[in-house]
Each structure stands twice: as C-alpha cells, then as structure tokens.
Amino acid sequence: xxxxxxxxxxxxxxxxxxxxxxxxxxxxxxxxxxxxxxxxxxxxxxxxxxxxxxxxxxxxxxxxxxxxxxxxxxxxxxxxxxxxxxxxxxxxxxxxxxxxxxxxxxxxxx
Amino acid sequence: xxxxxxxxxxxxxxxxxxxxxxxxxxxxxxxxxxxxxxxxxxxxxxxxxxxxxxxxxxxxxxxxxxxxxxxxxxxxxxxxxxxxxxxxxxxxxxxxxxxxxxxxxxxxxxxxxxx
Lengths: 110, 115
Hints:
By secondary structure, chain A is mainly beta.
C-alpha cells in the first residue's frame, strides 16, 4: 500500500551544520506530502507540505521539494540551531488519513 | 482557536483500573484520530472517526480499548482494565474533511503510566 520510508536516526549535528533527512514514498496516485516535527514533550506539528509534483514546501528555514521522478520529499535546512533538536516525521496522504514514517531524531549540539 | 485539547496531560493509574482519555477537536474539523506513541513501536494509529462515525478501528490493540465520539466536539478513548504495557503517550488529532491534503492538528498528548 501507499507508504513513506524515512532515514533512520539518530542524527547528531553541530550548530550551523547542514541537515538533510531523506524520505521516499510509494503511492499509486498523487498524494500530498508532509513533514511534521515533534519537540520534546509535545505533540506533532505540521512543519511544511507539498500537494503536487515540483512543489516546494518551506517553513522556519526548512525546505522540501516533491520529486515525482525520484519519489522523494527530502527535508533540508542550511544552518541548524540547537532549537531544531526534535523528531521529524515524513507523512503521505491517503484518501482518508495520513501514513507516517518512523521518525528521525535530530540532536543539534552547540 | 485553542487547538486540539486533550485531558488529562498526565495520568498514573494502577493495573486493572479503568482509564479515560479525552479529546476536543478543532471546531469545524470533521475527522478525529487517536494515536499511541511508544519508544518501541513509534506512532501507531488506533482508530479514526469521520463525521463522528468510527471508520477504521483496526489499530485498536485489544477489546480492552474502546473509543467513542458522541458529538463533533468530543471524543474519548477508554482502557478497561489497564495494563502496564498500555503505558505510552496517547495523541488525538483532527483534520478537515478527512483528506490528508489538509494535514492534521495534534493535541499535546496524554502521558499514561500504568503501574
């Protein structure tokens, strides 16, 4: 069935480093794609989304481009901060619900 | 809007006791989802409702778990009797139309500890 696969963590970076979290999807149709972020002790928050091929979602310095040719939606940020430490989830829209990836834990050290 | 509101934030109970978790979705949203999150199993969808009707409860682990949505502004997840392995963070989320295109809004979760 339709699903997403994201890179396993944990990922540990230094401040101002470049972050990439890979996400690939399998889908029979044309789903919307999402990145959610979960900060410690909180629920998941929508970080960004893209609804069709070649769309770029962006928010808080994060970007992801919906690539139909590679079935990917990789999350990137050019210069991370300690406050970006969180768990990041890739998700894909099914007709009536979202399918989430397993989550990638990112730790940014000062 | 105050967002999705869950109560209580923390619950500690003894094995065998009944536990009821509550959720108030965003006004106007017509789909509601209950998730469970643990270190071992990650984020699991337990059940979801569309227009107050349960659509898919295949993720409910056992008959000890039940969920209701008596109206558009309230849902409960009940565990009876509770067991230590039910310890987890339970999240409620709501969305508009039930289509993923609109994304979900999550509550802050209820951390359940069964001792």
